[in-house]
Amino acid sequence: MNPIQQLKNLSIRKTMNIVEINKSIMELNFKKEKLQNEVDGIQEQIKFLAELRQRMTDNDYQKSGQKLFDEMFGSNDDIIDPAFLEG
Description:
The protein is mainly alpha-helical. It is built from 4 helices and no strands. It is rod-shaped.
């Protein structure tokens, strides 16, 4: 639903008085707060899943033996010439 249709649902008219306008503003602020709470909840879920994914990736890296290899012989990052990356 587009914003104009939403405003019509709030029964906004050109002849609204101050009380009616204030009521509509309060309704919109309430809806905005409710939606913001939903967004905050979704962002928390995304953050949790991203952290879980990172922990799983770190665990896989350690289990693969790559970490031990990198500690003993250096990682591939040490081999790349930084000048090569700049050019």
